[in-house]
Amino acid sequence: MPRDATLEDVARHAGVSLATASRVLNGSTRQVGRALRERVERAAAELGYTTNRAAQALARSASDILGLVVHDLSDPYFAVVANAVVRESERHGLSVMVGTTFRDPEAEIGYVATLRAQRVRAIVLAGSRIADETVTERLRAEIDRFQGGGGRAALIGQDLLGVDTVVPDNRAGAYELARALAGLGHTRFAVLTGPSFLLTAVDRVEGFTAGLAAAGLPEPLLIPGPFDRDGGYLAAERLLALRDTTAAGVTCVFAVNDVMAVGALAALRAHGVAVPEQISVAGFDDIPTLRDLTPSLTTVRLPLADMGRRAVELALATTGPAAEPATAEVVLRESTRRVS
Amino acid sequence: MPRDATLEDVARHAGVSLATASRVLNGSTRQVGRALRERVERAAAELGYTTNRAAQALARSASDILGLVVHDLSDPYFAVVANAVVRESERHGLSVMVGTTFRDPEAEIGYVATLRAQRVRAIVLAGSRIADETVTERLRAEIDRFQGGGGRAALIGQDLLGVDTVVPDNRAGAYELARALAGLGHTRFAVLTGPSFLLTAVDRVEGFTAGLAAAGLPEPLLIPGPFDRDGGYLAAERLLALRDTTAAGVTCVFAVNDVMAVGALAALRAHGVAVPEQISVAGFDDIPTLRDLTPSLTTVRLPLADMGRRAVELALATTGPAAEPATAEVVLRESTRRVS
DNA sequence: TGGGCGCCGGAAAGCGTTTTCCTGGCTGAA
DNA sequence: TTCAGCCAGGAAAACGCTTTCCGGCGCCCA
C-alpha cells in the first residue's frame, strides 16, 4: 500500500523547498510568490496530499483537539451537552475526543491524564463533582498539571476551585420549583435525592428544602438512591412502601433529575398510581425526551446546549471570564396539578 | 509556565540514554536491566513525565485514535451506538474522536478527510447511506484513500461496496413487523416513510410492503417526510388530514424509525386521537427511551449497542470478516392492539 | 582458552511538520 | 550610483518520540 504523500513529496514534485511548500499549504505569516504557490498547489492536488496533523501538532506544539469527558453518552443530559460541545468545537476548527467515565471518578482522572498525554488544546469536563476530598484533590491536581503544561480546562457542573466552570443554578432552580409547587397547594413533599456524595444532587435537595421553608412548609421526606433512571424507579417504589407511614399525606414528589423522574413515573404507573391525579411529580434538567412523555413532566429547565457551548468558549478563551451561573427556569407541565 | 517534561529530560535525569528511557517507559520488545529500569522509573515519577502521544504517533506512524462519525449525538439512536463505540474502543486502549454531520453528506466526507489527516487508526461511520451516486462515490473515494494509507474503516447501516459493514436487517425486520401487525387483524396501513433518498428508510418501507403482500394485504399508504421526530409529527398530521379520503380505513401506522414514531404519537395525542384505541402505531430501532412512553411503543428491536461494538471490532480486525446482518426482532407493546 | 552467541546500552537516523536564519535580488531614497 | 531595507526562497534545526544498528561484555561449549 502506497503510503500517504508527504510534504516533502509535494515539495520535490513541485521543485521547491520544504519550507515553501509548508508555507503554501499549511498557512504562514509569510508570502509566497504567485508562480510557486500555484506550482505547489497543483503538486499537492496531483499527489492527493493531506497534512499529517500529528506531525503538525508536534512541530507547532499545539494540537487542534478538544477533549470532552462525560459520564454516559447515552444519558440524554450528556448527549445534549456533548452534542453542543462537538458542534461548538467544530465551529472553532477543533476536533473532539470523548471519554466516558460511567460515573467512576478514577476513570475521570485517568481520562484527563490521557488527554494531557495527547496534548489536547483544551478539556471540557461535564458531570457533577463528588463530595470526596481526596478524589477531588487528585482530579484537581491532574487538571493543574494539564493547565501547567499550557492546556486549558473548563467544567460543567460543580465548581472546582481554580478551574473555569459553567455552573447551573441548582439551588435557585430547586428553590423556585419548591415555591411554585407550594403555590399549587401542595404541603407534604418527598424528594428522591440521589446519592448524598453527588454535590449537584445535594445542592438541589438543599435548594428545594429552603424553598419549602420559605413557603412555610415542613421539611420533605428524603429518599436516597442512585442518580439514574432505575434509581428513580426504585426510590419511587420505596416511597410507595411508606405510603401508610412516614410518607402519609405526600402529594408531590421531586426527583433531583429528569431521568430519575422518568423512572419514578414508570414505577408509579406500574403500581397503578395515577400522575398527577394521585400524586404530582417533578424533575430537573429538562432533557428533550420529556416533552413526549404522558403526562409531560414538570421540571426545571437548564439551558443544556448553551452550557456546552459556553464551556467550550470558556475553555478556549485566553482570558478567564468569571462564570455567571446558567439560569434555571421552572417549567410546569402536566405531571403536577393544583390541589385544594 | 514550565513546559512538560520530555523523555530526554527523564533520560538525562536518570543518567541513561534516550533509547533506554524509551524502552522502559513506553514499552518495547527489548529488555532493560533492573537497575537502569528503576532509575528511569524514578526519574519519570519525579519529573511527572507523560508520554507525548502526538510525538509517539509520529514516530511509530500509528496513532491510537479511532474516529467516529455520527449524524447527531443527541438522537438516542446515535447516542446508544456512540456510547458502545466509545466503550469498546476504550477496551482496546483507543481514544475516540467524534464528528457530527447533522445528516449532511458533505460534512460526512469532510469529516473522513479530517480523520485521515489525523492518521487515526480506524474510522467507524454510523448512519444511513444516501441514494445519490455521486455523493456516495465521493465518500467511497475518501474512504478508499484512507484505507489506501493503511487505515481501516467500518460502517454501521447501509452497505458500501468494499467497506466492512454492520448491516441491520432492515428488510427482514420490517417484513416480520408487517406480518405481526397483519396477525393482529389490521388490513389497512399507512407508512411514514421518511425521505426517499435514505436507503435505510427505503429498505424498511420495502420490507414492510413485502410483508403485507405476503399476508395478502394491499399496499400501504405512503407518507414521506423528514427522518426525525418533527418529521414524524408532521407526517402524522398529514395522515390525519387524509382520514376521510385516501387514508380512510387505516387502523395502523408504521413509522420507519422510533423517533418519528414518537413524533407521530405526539401529533396523534395533540389531535385527540387515541393510541391504540383509534389507531395503532409502530416504530423501528427500539431506542431506550421507548419503554417509558405511554403507550409503550411497538417496534423492531435492533441490537444498537452490539452493533456499535461489532463495528469497532470490524474496524480493528486485521482480517476482514464477512458481515452477517444484525438481526432485528419484532417487539409488540401497547401502542398496537388487536382489531376484530 | 577461544570463538560464537545472546543481551544490554547507547548513538543516531528517522517520522512529517514548522520556523528560524541566511542569502541574494530588488526597490527606493539619498 | 550606492546603500539601507525589504522580501521571497531555501537550508537546516527543532518538535518528542521510536527503532535500527553497532559495540562490548559475559556465557556456554568445545
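qc> Chain B has a mean pLDDT of 94.
qc> done
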